[in-house]
């Protein structure tokens, strides 16, 4: 194997990916900044059940008032979100509907991470989503809260969702957690589409008070995690933003360069052994 081959291959892929980075190819080598949004809950962590939120009528409601009975499916998002939040919640509703769980055997709780969302928005979401849930409104709550309460809940979830100062939208990762009656996180489900059987198993574990050390569903690749950041998707045009696609291309580019470097090092290590086989001193 010639040392030049892996280098040439890496260079060709580098230029091909880089040129597709922007229409003019002028910023081919500029890597985008890493997203600061995150959702990394710790299995076994307890939610702050004394945090006071507001119900659909705007009345104060401690988070703990929703616990103590059935397991809780807790979904963060925000009600004015123009992007993936509705897709996320619909994915949760679909998985619950197909899980075979009986009405009343769980409680689905959504809460807005935006302190500006109020009772009217929560009521509208509850009315729309209840029609898709086997147990209807009895098993569904949509909550809002002030910044102080939201910060505490988000910290317990390992959830970080900064607001874009230009658009006012939140950059946040998609997913939800299942918690037991004591408010302890049993399992984390990343993404927007979920396996009904996996959700059923998680709810059964929460009901029994046990926990899982793994997240529900498959591990997401770097590209998938970047594309699941809410503000990177533009529903008006049905495609991801240039920033999201640039991030994915950057990850692919770095992987290609890494493989090219590994192939070059492997070729260098093999050259001396060939020399010895050929009888050279």
Explain this structure to me?
With 281 residues, this protein is α+β, with helices and mostly antiparallel strands. It has two domains: 4-32 and 241-277; 38-228, Glutaredoxin (3-Layer(aba) Sandwich), CATH 3.40.30.10. The chain contains seven helices and eleven strands. It has helices at residues 4-19, 85-98, 119-130, 147-157, 196-208, 222-227, 242-277, and strands at residues 38-39, 52-54, 60-62, 72-77, 107-112, 140-143, 159-160, 175-179, 185-190, 233-234, 239-240. The strands form four sheets. The chain has a five-stranded mixed β-sheet with strand order 6-5-4-8-9. β10 (233-234) and β11 (239-240) form a beta hairpin. α1 packs antiparallel against α7. The longest helix has 36 residues, at 242-277. The two termini are 21 Å apart. 35% of the residues are buried.
Task: Give the secondary structure arrangement, pairings included.
Elements: H1 4-19, E1 38-39, E2 52-54, E3 60-62, E4 72-77, H2 85-98, E5 107-112, H3 119-130, E6 140-143, H4 147-157, E7 159-160, E8 175-179, E9 185-190, H5 196-208, H6 222-227, E10 233-234, E11 239-240, H7 242-277
Parallel strand pairs: 4-5, 5-6
Antiparallel strand pairs: 1-7, 2-3, 4-8, 8-9, 10-11
Helix pairs in contact: 1-7, 2-5
Search tags:
single chain; 281 residues; alpha+beta; Glutaredoxin; 2 domains; five-stranded mixed sheet; two-stranded antiparallel ribbon; 7 helices; 11 strands; 38% helix; 15% strand; globular; disordered C terminus
**Whole-number tally of structural domains:** 2
Radius of gyration: 24 Å
Distance between the termini: 21 Å
How much helix, percentage-wise, in residues? 25-40%
- Assign the CATH architecture of the largest domain: 3-Layer(aba) Sandwich
**Number of helical runs?**
7
Major beta sheet, strand line-up: 6-5-4-8-9
Mean pLDDT value: 78
Number of strands: 11
């Amino acid at each position: 194997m010639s040392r030049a081959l892996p280098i040439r291959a890496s260079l060709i892929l580098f230029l091909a990916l880089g040129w597709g980075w922007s229409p003019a190819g002028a910023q081919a080598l500029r890597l985008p900044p890493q997203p600061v949004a995150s959702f990394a809950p710790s299995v076994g962590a307890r939610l702050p059940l004394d945090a006071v939120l507001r119900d659909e009528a705007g009345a104060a409601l401690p988070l703990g008032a929703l616990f103590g009975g059935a397991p809780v499916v807790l979904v963060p998002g925000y009600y004015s979100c123009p992007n993936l939040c509705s897709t996320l919640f619909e994915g949760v509703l679909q998985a619950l509907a197909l899980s075979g769980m009986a009405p009343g055997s769980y409680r689905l709780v959504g809460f807005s991470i935006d302190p500006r969302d109020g009772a009217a928005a929560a009521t509208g979401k509850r009315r729309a989503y209840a029609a898709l849930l086997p147990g209807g409104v009895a098993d569904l709550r949509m909550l809002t809260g002030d910044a102080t309460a939201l910060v505490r809940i988000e910290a317990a979830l390992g959830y970080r969702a900064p607001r874009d100062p230009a658009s006012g939208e939140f950059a946040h990762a998609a997913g939800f957690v299942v918690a037991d009656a004591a408010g302890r996180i049993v399992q984390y489900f990343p993404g927007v589409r979920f396996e009904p059987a996996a959700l059923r198993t998680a709810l059964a574990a929460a009901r029994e008070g046990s926990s899982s050390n793994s997240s529900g569903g498959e591990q997401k690749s770097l590209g998938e995690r970047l594309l699941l950041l809410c503000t990177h998707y533009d529903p008006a045009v049905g495609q991801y933003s240039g920033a999201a696609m640039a991030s994915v291309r950057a990850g692919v580019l770095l992987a290609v360069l890494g493989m090219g470097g590994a192939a070059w090092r492997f070729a260098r290590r093999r050259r001396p052994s060939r020399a010895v086989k050929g009888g050279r001193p």
